[in-house]
Design goal:
Helices cover 82% and strands 0% of the residues. The protein has five helices and no strands.
């Protein structure tokens, strides 16, 4: 009888571990930590061998983007709150719901355009060799980042 209980206990522990592992992975446990924004900028600067002037422009540009992103996220959050408030009503107005969804999409579209403009501006300031390295970095970021896109950092 004791042997059967011991086998059942071991199997239970193994089952719990097997079921918990995917859950923990989904929540991001055991995932390598993403470098902080400052470290990423330093890493990009080092890999591209940016001159002091290029690095200064890059930092200024990044700071402007950070402010714009923060403001955009605030506007999206506000529009989302208005959408939620409308949806909580007993009879939400369809036109208002559609208008809020369109507002959120427009804010996101404008931010995506701003990101691309920022990327193009950065590329324009690079030498041909730096541009080639930069393209390689973007490709590897896209490949690695697409797997983690749906995880929260």
């Amino acid at each position: 009888m004791g042997f059967k209980k011991m086998i059942c206990g071991i199997l239970t522990v193994l089952l719990v571990v097997a079921l918990a592992s995917p859950s923990l992975a989904w929540w991001g446990w055991g995932k390598p930590e993403r470098p902080r924004h400052e470290k990423r900028i330093e890493m990009i600067s080092r890999r591209l061998k940016l001159t002091d002037e290029q690095k200064k422009r890059f930092l200024v540009h990044q700071e402007e983007m950070k402010k714009a992103m923060r403001a955009n996220r605030r506007k999206v959050r506000e529009a989302g709150d208005k959408l939620k408030a409308e949806l909580k009503k007993d009879e939400p107005d369809r036109r208002t719901v559609h208008a809020r969804i369109n507002e959120i999409n427009e804010l996101r579209r404008k931010m995506q355009i701003r990101r691309m403009d920022s990327l193009l501006d950065l590329r324009r300031s690079l030498s041909p060799e730096q541009r080639e390295k930069f393209r390689g970095m973007l490709g590897s970021l896209r490949e690695n980042g697409s797997r983690d896109r749906h995880r929260k950092d």
